[in-house]
Amino acid sequence: MEPDRPLPHPITPEAKPFWEGLREQKLLLPKCGACGHVFFYPRVVCPRCHSRTIAWIQASGRGKLHAFEIAYQAFNKAWKVKPPWVLAMVELAEGPRMMTNLVNVEPDPRVITCDMPVQIVFSKLTDEITLPLFEPVR
Ligand SMILES: [Zn+2]
Fold it and tell me: Rounded to the nearest whole angstrom, what is the distance from the C-alpha of residue 30 to the centroid of ligand 1?
């Protein structure tokens, strides 16, 4: 089946563990070995203390909805997801925020609320790419 959206091209070495983890249904986040800061997106240096000692932790896959928007039309023809869909900024339990889609929920502002608890859904698009999407915790 053809993917319903443009695929990321994870070519940077600093992001490789993130994508490999998703393929194994694990959400891995970079954690600074010097100051302990957990961050996203993956970088070669800690955004807090600039240390280059970066380790990886397995995140819980849980968090809360920080912000969202409901999109009613696509502005890129490569995007084949049928509208409306929910663009979401999720604040992970480990601290960092991640841009994603909220799925398995009615795209209705009366149903979706900021700070609602959410959990990860691993969405396998190809053998190479699995995306971290989120759904409400029921
Ligand atoms: Zn640090």
Answer: 10
